[in-house]
Automatic annotation (TrEMBL):
Keywords: Membrane, Transmembrane, Transmembrane helix. It comes from Candidatus Collierbacteria bacterium GW2011_GWA2_42_17. The keyword Cell wall biogenesis/degradation does not apply. This is O-antigen polymerase. Coiled coil: none annotated. The chain crosses the membrane at residues 41-60, 67-85, 91-109, 121-138, 175-195, 207-229, 235-254, 274-291, 311-332, 344-363. It comes from the Bacteria.
Length: 380
């Protein structure tokens, strides 16, 4: 009973990011504080740990039945951390990674269903989208108590804030309680997918639909069109993988359009990063620190110190050959493969892989990872 209530509260607060940030030496690159590297204790983490503790007996029984894969997984974590560019940074990333895996395992063992999360998900999403609309109208954050739900303080003149050119007029892209409009769009895309595929009233779909449109996220809006035109997820995934393959070569042909050029910038250094750490990778969470010795001094700025904008290449660079082989072998196991080829799961994976061709938030940001895991937990 308590676990069910706690799950509803967690789902309600999924879009928030109230947290206490710490800034040890490894969270800085070239003296610059990097948000991605800051160990953070979120309010949501406390709820997640409480949920795990309530279901610890169930979790331990499951793990005892799966000691071999658990041992292999822990060995990969050990090697990835040991040979990491920044072992302490990787250690904190692995702690969060495993926290989320244990939450996912808890949801599966408790046989989470759509009816368990639909209401709090709708309320939480409604709040996020209403805030997003107000930010768009006021062209700034609203401030006040919303800060404690994760709203960042910004306005249309804040340096580095996302903007959209609307017939020659620069419009601020609202981010609600998220760190970036694209991350918000990815979150809402999964919410829309859930309401789209599960029986729900039309206005339930309209809320995340509107939210996605006013983020002005191109990849999310394109995928929205794919969904509405019922394009098969297999086709989307194949296209995304093919585009991922050719992406590193596009820098030689596209340099005039600044947004595209900036995203392709990292592929120039990707090959060096992959060759330096082929077996174990840079270590989980260490793509940005690996740039410090590769980028020219003039490029060591907050705007340039970001993960490569491709989820597959980011995973490969941080996890190396060992981590990639483990993922592939796990996916090809008969039981796992059957789950992954479930039409609903395939559609969910298509969202992550397609948007991951252009961004990294499903690998790097808590809100996106959690909504994906909650959605996945009810799909099979």
């Amino acid at each position: 009973m308590l676990s069910n209530l706690l799950i509803k509260i967690i789902v309600l607060f999924l879009p928030t990011q109230l947290g206490l940030h710490f800034w040890p030496a490894f969270s800085r690159v070239a003296g610059i504080k990097i948000d991605y590297l800051s160990p953070t204790l979120y309010f949501l983490d406390i709820l997640l740990i409480f949920l795990i503790s309530l279901n610890l007996k169930l979790i331990l029984i499951y793990l005892k039945k799966n000691l071999l894969p658990l041992g292999i997984f822990l060995s990969i974590i050990f090697l990835n951390t040991l040979f990491s560019i920044s072992p302490l940074n990787s250690l904190f990333w692995w702690l969060r990674f495993n926290l989320y895996l244990l939450v996912f395992l808890t949801l599966r063992l408790r046989k989470l269903q759509w009816k368990d999360i639909s209401s709090p998900l709708l309320f939480g999403t409604s709040f996020v989208v209403i805030l997003e609309v107000l930010q768009l109208l006021f062209q700034s954050s609203l401030g006040g108590p919303l800060y404690f739900l994760g709203e960042r303080t910004y306005s249309s003149i804040t340096p580095g804030i996302g903007r959209f050119n609307f017939f020659g007029q620069e419009i601020l892209r609202p981010i609600s309680t998220f760190s970036h409009a694209n991350s918000l769009a990815g979150y809402l895309l999964i919410v829309f997918y859930l309401f789209f595929k599960k029986a729900s009233r039309p206005w339930h779909k309209i809320i995340p639909f509107v939210g996605i449109i006013i983020t002005f996220s191109k990849s999310a809006i394109i995928f929205l069109a794919f969904l509405l035109f019922n394009l098969k997820p297999e086709i989307i995934i194949i296209f995304s993988l093919l585009f991922t393959f050719v992406q590193p070569f596009l820098q030689n042909f596209i340099s005039s359009w600044q947004p595209i050029s900036d995203r392709l910038f990292y592929f120039f250094y990707l090959k060096k990063i992959l060759l330096q750490n082929p077996l174990t990778g840079t270590g989980l969470g260490n793509f940005i620190p690996s740039l410090e010795k590769l980028l020219p001094g003039s490029f060591l700025t907050p705007s340039k110190l970001q993960p490569v904008h491709n989820l597959i290449y980011l995973y490969l660079s941080e996890m190396g050959i060992l981590g990639s082989l483990f993922l592939i072998i796990t996916a090809l196991k008969k039981k796992t493969f059957k789950i992954l080829t479930n039409p609903l799961v395939l559609g969910l994976l298509a969202i992550v892989i397609f948007t991951g061709t252009f961004d990294h938030y499903f690998w790097t940001l808590p809100q996106n990872k959690l909504i994906f895991l909650f959605a996945l937990a009810i799909m099979f």
